[in-house]
Amino acid sequence: MGAVAVLERHLVLYRRLWRGSVFSSFVLPVLFLAGIGLGVGGYVGEIGGVGYLAWITPGVLASTAFQTAIGESTYSVMGDFKWVRSYHAMYAAPVRVGEMVAGRLVYILLRVVVAAAVFLGVTALFGALRSPWAVLSLVVVALVGLAAAAPVTAFAATVEHDSYFALLFRFVMIPSALFSGVFFPVDQLPGPARVLACLSPLWHGVELSRAATLGVFPAWPVWAHVAYLLVWAGAGTAWAVSAFGRRLRD
Length: 250
What we know:
2 strands
């Protein structure tokens, strides 16, 4: 019940603030897809036998989920510890640490999946979905969101200054978005760069999402991609529970 109460608290706050996220979560990805997929796609032509718009759609979908999850796991988490101290209030309620983490992660998953569902609906109107399995990309973005949100939530619970988030965005989120197969095939990168790309959870999400929307086989077996994302999610959740506990006992 504690996790449900934490989730409800986040949803109540979002109900008051949702207008501020409409552009970044819904409008911007669609505009980006239209500008890059249709505009640049006219010069690129086809990749892997499909038009660039259809090829880039699953990448933008997974990347949006990845960036949304990271964004929701940084300032708001640190703020609830340092400035608002809402987690301290929950701890006194009492709400268990694991319930705090679970409530926040479920909230982030809801944000990611709802945004992805809207995005899929719009891209279907563009004719960018080539397979009925495209609906499974909602499961994929949920995995990507959890794999990104869990460790970043843990990291945010350990820091005292928001300047660390600028480093996270600059050296983790942006390079992942640029070099994880969203805009061009990873096999065009040099060997060491390909290895680094494969370490990112986003690449695995892009591969699974592209397999779903195009009806093709991903680079690795599906179970291997899923297992990799689950390892990130599981390890990140365990770290988050530990980090929340230490922060609340200080």
